[in-house]
Amino acid sequence: MICSVRQSVTKTINGSDFFLRERSPVQPLQRSSLFFPALQKPQRFAVSVSKPLHVSSVENLSLKAPRDSVICEAYEAADSSRPVQQEAKSEAAKKVKIGVYFATWWALNVVFNIYNKKVLNAYPYPWLTSTLSLACGSLMMLISWATRIAEAPKTDFEFWKTLFPVAVAHTIGHVAATVSMSKVAVSFTHIIKSSEPAFSVLVSRFLLGESFPVPVYLSLIPIIGGCALAAVTELNFNMIGFMGAMISNLAFVFRNIFSKKGMKGKSVSGMNYYACLSLLSLLILTPFAIAVEGPQMWVAGWQTTMSQIGRQFIWWMAAQSVFYHLYNQVSYMSLDEISPLTFSIGNTMKRVSVIVSSIIIFHTPVQPINALGAAIAILGTFLYSQSKQ
Question: Where are its TM segments located (predicted)?
Fold first, then answer.
C-alpha cells in the first residue's frame, strides 16, 4: 500500500529551531542515502522560524569572508581611536587650564598680601580694611551681573539660608586673618595658618565623630611642631597676631564643613558662589566694623595717612580690595575643575610662595631656626594632603 507521508524534521542550529515541512511526497529512504546524503534528489522545503536565529560563528554556516571581516575590524579600530584621541586632547587642555588657574591664584594671592600689609602698616584699621575688600568684590560682581558679563545665579530663600552659616564663618576668618596681619609679619601669619589641617582633623574627630587613617594623625605632628617652633623663635611675636591666625584657622574649618553640608545639590558655579558669599558676609560684617572701630577713628586715621603717604595710599587700598576678591574668586573657580586633594596641595604651595615673597619684599628678619620651623610645618601640611588621599 502506497501512502503519502508528511514528515516534520526539526533541526537546531546554535539554539534556533527550524521546522522543515516537505511539500511533495517523500520517497522511501534508501540505505545509501543515510551514508551519502549528496546522492539524494534535491527537494524544496518551506522554512518557518519559531525562534530568533543566533549565529555564534560564520564557520558554522560554511560562510567564509576573511577579507570582509578584516576590513570591518579595521574600520572599527579606526572609529574607536577617534574618541581616544579627542579624550587625550581634552585631558591635556584641562591640565593646561588647571595650571593657569593655579598660577593666577598664587600670583593674585601674593599681590594681595603685599598690598594688604602696606595698607595695614599705614592705616591700622583691620575691620574697615576687611569691610572694604568685601564691598569691592560685591560691587564688581553686581556690575558684572547687571551688564551680563557674568550670568547671574538663580537662587532662592533656601539657598541663602544654607549660605548664612558659611558666610558667618567666612567673615570671622577673614577679619581674624586681617587683624593678625596688622600685628605681625605676613610670613608669620601664614606659617600659623598652615596648621589649618590640624584644626580640620580635630574638629572633625571630636565634634563630628569622623575617624581618619593613622598616617593622617601622624602628619599632624610636624604641622603642630613646626608651627610651635616658628612661633617660639619669631622675633616680632605678638599674641594678638598669633591668636588672630589661630581663630582664622578654626573659622575657615567650620566654613568648609558648613559649605559641604549645606551646598549639596546646589547648581551654582564657583564664581557666583563666592560672589553670593561676599555679599552676605558684607552685610554681616558692616555693623560690627562700625561698632568696633567707628567712623570717627576711620576719618582721623585717613587724614594722618594721606598727609604721610599721599594719594598713593588710595591705589594701595584699591589694589588690596580688588586683588582680595580676584584671588578668592579664582580659587573657588578652580574647585570646579580639580579635586579637594589637588586644591589642598595647591593651597599649601600658595603659602610657600606668599611666605617667601613677603620675606623678600618686606625684608623680614628670619632666624635659621625660625625658617626650619616653617619648613617642617609646610612639609607636614603636604604629608597631610597625601595621606588624605
Answer: 98-115, 127-146, 214-233, 239-258, 270-292, 312-328
Q: Which of residues 12 and 82 earns the better pLDDT score?
A: 82
pLDDT for 177: 95
- In whole angstroms, what is the distance from residue 43 CA to residue 24 CA? 8
pLDDT tens digits for range 145-185: 999 988 888 888 888 999 999 999 999 999 999 999 999 99
> Which candidate, 101, 82, 123, 159, places its Cα nearest to that of 299?
123
b/e per residue 232-256 (b: at least 16 CB within 10 A)? ebbeeeeeebbebbbbbbbbbbbbb
- Determine the pLDDT at residue 52: 47
Edge-to-edge order in the sheet of strand 8-13: 8-13, 16-22, 45-49
The pLDDT-based confidence of 84 (bands split at 50, 70, 90) is low
CB under 8 Å, gap of 24 or more: what pairs does 299-305 form? 301/123, 301/124, 301/125, 302/123, 305/122, 305/123
Residue 198 to residue 188: CA distance in whole angstroms: 17
Secondary structure of residue 343 in the 3-state scheme: helix
* The residue to which cell 598727609 is assigned: 307
pTM of the model: 0.73
Tell me the three cell numbers of residue 8.
516534520
For 244-285, the DSSP string reads HHHHHHHHHHHHHHHHHHH-TT----HHHHHHHHHHHHHHHH
Mean pLDDT confidence for 125-151: 94
Q: Rounded CA gap, 342 and 357, in Å?
A: 23
Alpha helices in the chain (DSSP H): 31-35, 66-122, 126-146, 157-183, 186-193, 196-206, 214-232, 239-262, 270-292, 295-308, 312-335, 340-362, 368-388
Distance CA 52, CA 69 (A): 23
Q: Band of the pLDDT at 382, cuts 50, 70, 90?
A: confident
Q: Are 217 and 165 in contact (CB under 8 A)?
A: no
Measure the CA–CA gap between 196 and 158, rounded to whole angstroms: 29
Contact 313, 305 (CB under 8 A): yes
Show Cβ contacts of residue 335 under 8 Å, excluding neighbours closer than 6 positions: 270, 343
